């Protein structure tokens, strides 16, 4: 009997070692390094603004539970100067205790401010997003970062989710001649979804898009109705990972360390106003099934087994 118990304990230890996170587990992040908005010809940039949001919905959360916070919206850039825009971490759960987020990385050598081990294998959900203090109009560009993470859902039949997003908008005007606007950046994106128990479900995704829109009004202060003129959505920045619910799984997409270079340009019509919009969104969702309630027959069988084991123990003692 002792040998059997030791063997079971060993198997349990191996199982814990194989799963570094409470499951179901979802993780998604995107890092923009040195992103720049460039113009040529008669194009000129009128200004830019950024809106960052971070939200989470964890059952029974006592910290920022279910709240979406718009931290900044408006003109974030003046000339070649910029301001740091950071959303407080939206978090919930017993092991998600972050209250502020770190500055966004502006070089690829800077580690992600919140990594995959943030929850340390515990229960909780968090989302964070930030844009660096530099300017996308200056040499070297700017940086932006977004992450969501969720380690397990306590209880059963519950869904937990987190979202982080930053949206950067730049207005551009053209003169009488030909013009172009470009987007340059090095970008890293990664998603992971893990389940260990049948019935668990985890999904994680990143959605990163650069879009060019023609303004419906001529005044640069009011763009009016936006007409899509071009979209840049590379597959490497549109990632999804999903695990469960029929079996355990560890789904991953992207690379947690590699930065890929991107360079795209759009032609602009003379005498027009445009907006170029960078949207970066990270989402994840997990579901934990309700534990099955033992049937009366199963309980009776368990009782018989316990009585039988007790009888064997008594006979061994008499011997």
Walk me through the structure:
The protein has 319 residues and is mainly beta. The protein has one domain (20-318). The chain is 13% helix and 50% strand. The chain contains two helices and 16 strands. It has helices spanning 2-18, 296-318; strands at 25-41, 44-57, 68-72, 75-78, 81-82, 85-92, 124-131, 142-151, 158-173, 179-195, 201-215, 226-232, 238-243, 249-254, 260-268, 273-288. Strands 2, 3, 4, 5, 9, 11, 12, 13 and 16 form a nine-stranded antiparallel sheet that branches. Strands 1, 6, 7, 8, 10, 14 and 15 form a seven-stranded antiparallel sheet that branches. It is elongated. Residues 1-19, 74-81 and 99-117 have low confidence and may be disordered.
List keywords for this structure.
319 residues, single chain, elongated, nine-stranded antiparallel beta sheet, mainly beta, disordered N terminus, seven-stranded antiparallel beta sheet
Brief digest:
The chain is mainly β. It has helices at 2-18, 296-318; strands at residues 25-41, 44-57, 68-72, 75-78, 81-82, 85-92, 124-131, 142-151, 158-173, 179-195, 201-215, 226-232, 238-243, 249-254, 260-268, 273-288. Strands 2, 3, 4, 5, 9, 11, 12, 13 and 16 form a nine-stranded antiparallel sheet that branches. Strands 1, 6, 7, 8, 10, 14 and 15 form a seven-stranded antiparallel sheet that branches.
User: Based on helices, strands and strand pairing, what is the structural class?
Assistant: mainly beta
> What does the largest sheet look like?
9 strands, antiparallel
What's the tally of helices?
2
In percent terms, what proportion of residues is strand? over 45%
> What characteristic shape results from the CA principal axes?
elongated
Total individual domains? 1
As a percent range, the share of helical residues equals 10-25%
